[in-house]
Amino acid sequence: MEARCQCGSVVFKTPLEKPLALYICHCADCRRQTSSAFGTSAIFPTFSIPNTDLLSCYSRPTTSGDTLYCYFCKVCGTRLVHMSPGKNVCSVKGGCLDGLDWNKAIHLWTKSAMVPIPEDAESHSGTSDISDYRACQEELDQPTNALG
Ligand SMILES: [Zn+2]
Ligand SMILES: [Zn+2]
């Protein structure tokens, strides 16, 4: 899939034509990170991003003890990709991708959602009912078993 930041300085292709999984996370962290009502994560096998001189990086520790590297366009600030070293998958922020099928998105942390959740969508209210993935999207960015 084609990914592009708002100003068009950073353009890249994902390694697959469809994500392995697509999440919409309604937790407070994702709300803050996006300055929006929720965050979105399209999970892909880890790949190297071109135009790295046009990217800046914000890194932060995760609750699982990893470091999450969050890449964004230096020019327009669009958050594009989240990665952790040693993980086999990464998260491309959904809004920068063309042609995503949002109907397949899995909703997380719906108990703190600010907007209605579609009734037919797969959804999880918080951490306790998700065994495969961690609670927050930014940790979910790196599900170790997404490739089976
Ligand atoms: Zn940009
Ligand atoms: Zn979240």
From TrEMBL:
It comes from the Eukaryota. Belongs to the Gfa family. Keywords: Lyase, Metal-binding, Zinc. Gene3D superfamilies: glutathione-dependent formaldehyde- activating enzyme (gfa). This is CENP-V/GFA domain-containing protein. Residues 1-103 form the CENP-V/GFA domain. It comes from Phialemonium thermophilum. Coiled coil: none annotated. The keyword Chaperone does not apply.
